[in-house]
Amino acid sequence: MIRSLLLASAACALALPAAAQTVAIVNARIEPVSSAAIPNGTLVIRDGKIAAVGASVAVPAGAKVIDAKGGVVTPGLVAPSSNLGASEVSGVRETRDDGTGSHLSAAFDIAYGVNPASPMIGLARDGGITSSAVVPVLSGTGGGAHEHADDGVVEEMTAGASGDGDPPLFGGQAAFIRLKAGASDIVEASKLAVTVSLGESGARAAGGSRGADLVLIRSALEDARAFASRRAAFEQGATRDFGLSRLDLQALIPVVQGKTPLLIRVSRAADIRQALKLAAEEKIRIVLEGVEEGWMVAPEIAKAGAPVIVDPQADLPDSFEALGSRLDNAARLNAAGVTVAINGARDFNNLRQERLNAGLAVANGLPYQAGLAAVTLTPARIWGQDGKIGSLEAGKVADVVVWNGDPLETTSWPLNVFVGGVEQPQDSRQTQLRDRYAASDQSGYPPAYR
Amino acid sequence: MIRWRSVAMATSLLALGLTACATTGTTAPAKPAAQGAGKTPEKAEAKPLPKGLDGQASTGFPSTYVPLPSRAMAFVGATILTATGQQIENGVVFVSGGKISSVGGPETPIPADIAVIDAKGKWITPGIIDAHSHLGVYPSPGVQARSDGNEATDPNTAQVWAEHSVWPQDPGFNRARAGGITTMLILPGSANLFGGRSVALKNVPSLTMQGMKFPDAPYGLKMACGENPKRVYGGKGRSPSTAMGNVFGYRKAWIDAADYARKWDDFRAKQQKGEKADAPKRDLQMETLAGVLKGEILVQNHCYRADEEAVMIDIAKEFGYKITMFHHAIESYKIAPLLAKEGICSATWASWSGFKMESLDGIDANAAILWKNGACVVIHSDDPIMTQRLNQEAAIAMTAGAKLGYDIPRSEAIKWITANPAKAMGIGDKTGSIEPGKAADLVIWSRDPFSVYAQAEKVFIDGALIYDRQDKRFQPKSDFELGQPGQGAFN
Description:
Chain A is α/β, with parallel strands linked by helices.
């Protein structure tokens, strides 16, 4: 019995990445993001944290030395809004836990469905991503959410959604995960935000029009306040009827208290203005996602201090609420002083696109440093994780990537990925498939034996 | 003098043309070859079939494309990827009459009296070709009223033609052009086993589909394997609802098509001999399928899985047609030697995968492994966003090869989005590479087109400037975008 336990734990140890050790990355261009680039520097990782970073940092005795050979070191990339870990195969309903069903609205908590063993996590790490906000499905047709429908049959195939009836008003609560291989729990934080859509999909959730959507959202916030202040009366059945259930109201309390933001999916300039007005009047924090026509109202967004999550590829007038979509949306928003985070695709399988999307934004006028921040420190800050991650500073958790070139460039890739100071395996279902079929094999046996 | 001569020439050509028409119009029945067999055929004047009843005589929907105005010019000093396997530094491309006149190194002679365009620091490639596009048939904005890509009412709609769904005002054409796309294969969707005919378009703004139609390009037939047809029809309680139902559907259709082709062949043979014969009734569905069997229409087959591709190859052999290209082809890397041997191209994305069961095994090295095995690789989009950056998609696929230790040069990878799709669309003799005699479909890039920072600065079709990133006069807008937010400007 004891022997088999020992064997089992030994096997586990083999499968897990090596424990944290002292590592010195030398001969690297270091992009701390929070400060100017160091053309040729050293970064030391010790006890899972960044111990030192600079141009003249000594390599500690006994440290494992990684020669970056002129490559680039960045913070691990942060996906600002994805369904990583909560969805496996978008076309297979049983694998999807990224959307609420018909029972819950704001109370849906995506954190409970996160699967640390998802093969998609290795794939995301392959793109240099070390953490992600995991956000309930945000329906909407703007370019930021363009889903691939290879037969033109666009299906809403989210967990629990029966396909009939309107989606709930609120999408549910977001979480934050760190992509540590072998960890039993990768959820770093939960109940980070409650999501809601304005515009076309918000209108649909409200029965058909934008006006109804805003009235219902405001009413829900008002109910949440009343619920919070009159809890005892509610338990005794002595309050008026509320529009949402007890659980949904409970989830909205931190929002109306200004502790967690409302993540609003919105595209059209007029709808963005409504979102800003909502935030000001209700005194709530908001984060805006999509924001295809954001450039038209950039100064107003900046003045309101609302951060945005954008997809720089979105340049099609692919809905009547995104007619003004432009490739330089991120650049214009940034120039106006808006805090800009950049998404890959929301879908897990295109998270690898995130860094290239930052490159695309740079190609369309976003300053390089802002582009890099938009996939690291900025999303970390939006989700309250910047005390730990998002930049290369002594004392921060060592989520670090060594690249063989410019991290925003198509022809570069990560050479070493560290999460919490532990070097991660460069292994995924995709690399295993690749290696199986790229191998030349004269054994006469089928690939299944490789 | 010269003027008089050209008029005379025109006249004589006209005369020739008239003669040719007259001859065709009154074709005398050929002397019956059957005489030797001792049979006396009935003497019958074969009347031509009424218009529209004979597929061979059908006028169809001919291209009215006319190249935009162009002038002779030479680009000097750029790095040129010819898509014939060459990367020329400090090169020269000389264009006249809308065609490539010559291409080569700095020593390439150019006439003294033409415009010379300094392209130092720039890169020049052939116009980018997207072999899988739904622009026009699934236009922006994506509303139900313009959702014209899938005639999802029957598993076999070989009778429908994508060109009849194309909305030329789709703003997506303008975005694609700014990404260097000069030619596209517009396909019906994949709801059906046989989705209908594809159409090759030149990416020029036009009031009509015919004005974009690529002259003399062969038609394609969109076929679809796998999950989509069986989901769409199984969901309606109809066949096919399984993979085996799909295969039955293909085989039954090819049997019908072979029979239809035989009836027309018999009729034409009899007609040739001057025998009395009743023409079969024209059937547009069968006509398209028969066109495939005769090798006139190219099969463009949506098929993700390697095992399903192998089944489709056997079906093609059973009925004697050729599959030109598997589209999406996410698992082609698993049977790369077979595809190389069969001469079938694989059109794929670099990294899109995992969105449904049949795309689960997609890897970014798909193209690289195919290339290594000598199989034909095409990088396609199937998407109005990705089509704007096929160069980057090719770069991702090329980089996946580098990760494997394959040294895939840019001069090779560029073929994946130019020469190879041109070949797979049956227009490889007209466009897709920079070589003398080919159409001057060109993109001038701000830098190495495999870079994320590269931008198409100028795009030419048949030598005419159709897009210029620096010049608003060459940034066409769709009628739809006038008076709308953004006014059709997107960069």
